[in-house]
Design brief:
By secondary structure, this protein is an alpha+beta fold. It has four helices and four strands; from the N terminus they run βααβααββ. The protein has a single domain, classed as 2-Layer Sandwich (60s Ribosomal Protein L30, Chain: A), CATH 3.30.1330.
Length: about 120
């Protein structure tokens, strides 16, 4: 099992949609920045997965003051950036069904910081 902690706020779905609708380049920049946030924190784990497929467990720690955006499906949209970042960092070969058999989300709302602890089992 590998456990990777990704600190920092990843964009939620509503934020991404808003950026995409206002200017497609803003949406692309948001995706690039969020993916790079994951890449830099996941790089030390590159090449450590040798057997596929893996199960991915994402433990989301979310500040209570997220307001109207504090719903699980909106927050969990960040999984896109996490999986893409893990691929770009060399932790996963790819993020298709051949490499990932399941994705599970768990949420804790009273955290002091926004972060995601990703377990690859």
């Amino acid at each position: 099992m590998i456990e990777i902690s990704v600190s920092g706020k990843l964009p939620h779905l509503n934020e991404y949609i808003q950026k995409e609708r206002s200017n497609r380049f803003m949406g692309a920049k948001l995706k690039k920045d969020a993916t790079e946030l994951v890449v830099w924190q996941a790089k030390p784990y590159a090449g450590k997965i040798t057997e596929y497929p893996v199960s991915v467990i994402m433990n989301w720690y979310v500040k209570k003051n997220r307001g109207k955006y504090a719903d699980p499906d909106n927050i969990g949209f960040g999984a896109k950036f996490i999986l893409d970042g893990l691929v770009h960092a060399g932790v996963l070969e790819d993020d298709t069904f051949r490499q990932i058999e399941s994705i599970t989300h768990q949420f804790e709302w009273d955290s002091t910081e926004d972060k995601v602890v990703v377990q690859l089992v």
